[in-house]
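User: Hi! I'm working on a homework problem where we have to compare a predicted structure to a textbook description. Could you give me the structure for the chain below?
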Amino acid sequence: MSSEIDVNRGRRISRRSLLGQAGVLLMTLVSGSSFALKSAAKKWDGTKELVVTFTIATITDRRVHRPYVAIWIEDEQGKMVRTLAAYLMQGQKGSRWYPDVKRWYRAAKELFEKSNIDLISTVSSATKAPGTYVLKWDGKNDKKAVVDQGKYYVCIEAARERGTYQLIRQLVAVGSNNFAQTLTGNVEITSAKVEYRKKA
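Assistant: Happy to help. Predicted structure tokens:
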């Protein structure tokens, strides 16, 4: 069988060349489709906010310290998007325990190495007493850029000296529809709720 194909008035091209050109065309079409899908992604609705409400447990044992608690947002791939709060004991004495809030600390360290954003010095504050707290996410990442609508994880991590380590991690879909969702609590964070709504 001939290894060449006649096209356009006797001009000849090899099968290999023809297949190569077809492959390039297919890749171009796929790339164009991916670009179109990416370009079509809607940005966060600036009239809305994601509200995270959570309760730090009351433990009466005098030997128990206040927990370290971090609340942040991750994308679907598990990458940190925005830290809403990090309640840590400040200063050198408390810093030795920062790695105990292991998932957040690892992500914060990676962000610092890649983008020189120091969340511990710019976002963290003192540990909190037992009680209920409310945080709001405005749809911006740690670099202050507006994110796309889509699926995100809400993360609430707690670690307590002479206590336990706990992580609440819930996937939510942020788009045009409002919602409210109750999260499963634990011994450190007894209750939590996420609400996507018009800005109050």
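For your comparison, note the following. The chain has two domains: 4-40, 48-198. The longest strand covers residues 150-159. Good luck with the assignment!
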